[in-house]
Structure formats: C-alpha cells, structure tokens
Design brief:
Blueprint: H1 3-7, E1 15-18, E2 21-24, H2 27-43, H3 56-74, H4 79-99, H5 107-128, H6 135-138
Antiparallel strand pairs: 1-2
Helix pairs in contact: 2-3, 3-4, 3-5, 4-5
Length: 140
C-alpha cells in the first residue's frame, strides 16, 4: 500500500471505501451524467440523427449504453445486474419510443445497445481482468 493509502486508511484521496475496494467520489456524478445523456437521447420526443443514413445513430446508441455500464461499474454497482437492467432497458426503450412517443421502434437500435454493452464489458474485462462486477477488486 502506498504512503497515501496508509495515511487515509486504505482509501484513495478523494475516495470512499465501498464493497472492500476504493471508489472515487467523482464516479457517481459521471454515472448520473451518463444516465441523463442516455435518457435524453432515448426519450427526446423527436429522433435526433445528426447524419441520417450513415449509421452514426447506431454508434451513438452503442456508446451511451457502454458509458452507463462503465460509469456504473466504476461507481461500484454490481456488473451483471446492471448489464441485465440495461439490456432490458434497451428493448423497453424502443417499445416506449414506438408506442408513446410516436417514433419508430427499431430492432437495430436494440442490437446497437447490446453491442455497446458487450464491448464495454469486454474492454473492462480485458483491461482490468476478471468478471466485470469484480474487476475493481483486482486493482489495488
């Protein structure tokens, strides 16, 4: 343990102990921001596609779901329940868009959302080792 870790009782400066590991306090605001961006992007009354026909919309879908998963994991949320909730949300958001918002429900958007989750979980696993929900415990 570093001298800083010893002085702070095993906690990183500006962090708090959660689940046996250390989590920076700034992880929750990033998670809240990612969720907010996701909700705005998914439930804005009019579809926002800055470059129709280019597939950029699908890239945005993948990125916003990946961002919520990564920031949620960083904030200390359990990985598999979070990923499962986001996968369910991917499908439900398209139903809501088609039924309540008068937008087109698109199965390709759900696929893009799930690809974003898979990529985020894979990158997290490769970079930190172990399962996504335990990866932070491996870092000391």
């Amino acid at each position: 343990m570093s001298a800083l870790g010893q002085r702070t009782g095993g906690r990183a400066a500006g962090g708090s102990a959660v689940g046996g590991g250390t989590r920076p306090l700034f992880a929750w605001p990033w998670f809240a921001l990612a969720v907010t961006v996701q909700l705005v992007a998914l439930y804005w009354p009019r579809p926002v596609d800055p470059a129709p026909g280019t597939g950029l919309d699908k890239v945005v879908h993948a990125c916003i779901f990946a961002a919520v998963l990564v920031t949620g994991l960083r904030a200390g949320l359990p990985g598999w329940p979070l990923a499962a909730a986001l996968a369910v949300h991917a499908g439900l958001s398209e139903i809501v868009q088609g039924q309540l918002l008068g937008r087109d429900a698109d199965v390709a958007d759900v696929v893009a959302d799930l690809v974003g989750l898979a990529l985020a979980a894979g990158v997290r696993r490769v970079t930190l080792g172990g399962r996504p929900d335990t990866a932070d415990r491996h870092r000391q």
